[in-house]
Description:
The chain is mainly alpha-helical. The chain has a single domain, classed as Ankyrin repeat-containing domain (Serine Threonine Protein Phosphatase 5, Tetratricopeptide repeat, Alpha Horseshoe). The chain is 65% helix and 0% strand.
Amino acid sequence: MCSTLVTISSKGDLPMLERVLAGEFDQYSEDDVSEALLRSACHGYVDCVMALLAHGADADCEDVDGDTPLMLAASNNHVGSSVSCLLGVLYCSLVIVSLRSEL
Length: 103
């Protein structure tokens, strides 16, 4: 059974997603956050992707087939939307890691 978080993310309902992330509904796990990100990226729901990333979702998470949100977005022709968001987050993450290693 899907959590409320995953169900809402699959529908691209940003206002409701923000309420779920704020804890207004049932509890959810880290796996639920990853699954929600995967589904949002797959459907090209940019606002939901950004909300989940801002909430700490792992941009490198994988589904059971080993596909990442970036791969799912690209394979479903969402280039320029979710792909751009994820690439931006991944790029920023790489820069931060690089800067930390220099300290």
